[in-house]
Specification:
The chain has one domain: Indigoidine synthase fold, CATH 3.40.1790. It is α/β, with parallel strands linked by helices. A hairpin with a 2-residue loop joins β3 and β4. It is globular, with a radius of gyration of 18 Å. The chain contains 13 helices and 11 strands. Strands 1, 2, 3, 4, 5, 6, 7, 8, 9, 10 and 11 form an 11-stranded mixed beta sheet that branches. The mean pLDDT is 97. Bound molecules: pseudouridine-5'-monophosphate (PSU) and manganese (II) ion (MN). Manganese (II) ion binds next to loops. Homotrimer. Belongs to the pseudouridine-5'-phosphate glycosidase family. It catalyses: D-ribose 5-phosphate + uracil = psi-UMP + H2O.
Amino acid sequence: MSYTQYIDYSAEVLKAKEANLPIVALESTIISHGMPYPQNVDTAKKVEKIIRNKGAVPATIAILDGKIKIGLSEEELIYFAKATDVEKVSRRDLASVLASKKAGATTVAATMICAELAGIKVFVTGGIGGVHRGAEETMDVSADLQELAKTNVAVVCAGAKSILDIGLTLEYLETHGVPVVGFETDEFPAFYTQKSGFGVDVKGETPQDIAAMLNVKWELNLHGGVVIGNPVPKDKEMDKSLIDQIIDKALKEAKDKGISGKETTPFLLDRLKELSEGATLTTNIALVENNAHVGAEIAVALHDIEK
Ligand code: PSU
Ligand code: MN
């Protein structure tokens, strides 16, 4: 039997596939490990609604009972938002978590893999993983980057946070031939702020322009993903000196505590929320919603081209 035995579509997504509607993938690590309850489930539901209102169908992806779930029910969303024993699943963890029938929340890398298996080309998230600061010593480079190098899914995000080394992250993407597009911007966004000080490869003026570029890339069999950086709305961005200050503090704490590996990103996200007294969470929610608008428009535009 083929991989299809591991895939379980929700009724909504199955219907969308049969009716050939545009579908947008969403990850679950952001729910289980990226935001606290209940803001995580509220945001997950709101994002799904935004996508539906734009004429696309949301498919939140997670691992449950030995299956890759493509589309979660409300009860399942609540489960992933509340449960504390959900595994963080990246590429290396997919097989073991499926085989052991544990619950797993998929990272950008694992969500891309599952989206591709399900025939979904556009994926909306908050921020991608990248090359961590100090990677020259720790070699901590997110598997998200390697996945972007080979899996044919476009990832709409608000850039990468400066808990990462944004310059090295962009160098890595360049080496692997991953296009970095700025939505209505020449500058790669830094998640909590609109600007990072680093440029993008190409500015996408409209969702239609970006969809056209995706279509050409994949028609040419240029394997791999595309990063679409969509800056946080101006009125929701954080003060740069404040965010720089708390990121430095959180990074130092992580180092002092010896946090490493897959714990690093969730630890830093949680500390930033506490150190900013919730301000990072407010910005995080706003940028994910904004990405859902843009991602759904790109998915609809790409679907129109492919029709
Ligand atoms: N960045 C965020 N929020 C997140 C993540 C990253 O702002 O929730 C999650 C994503 O799921 C991403 C993962 O794929 O962290 C990267 O983890 P790591 O650095 O361990 O590869
Ligand atoms: Mn890592």
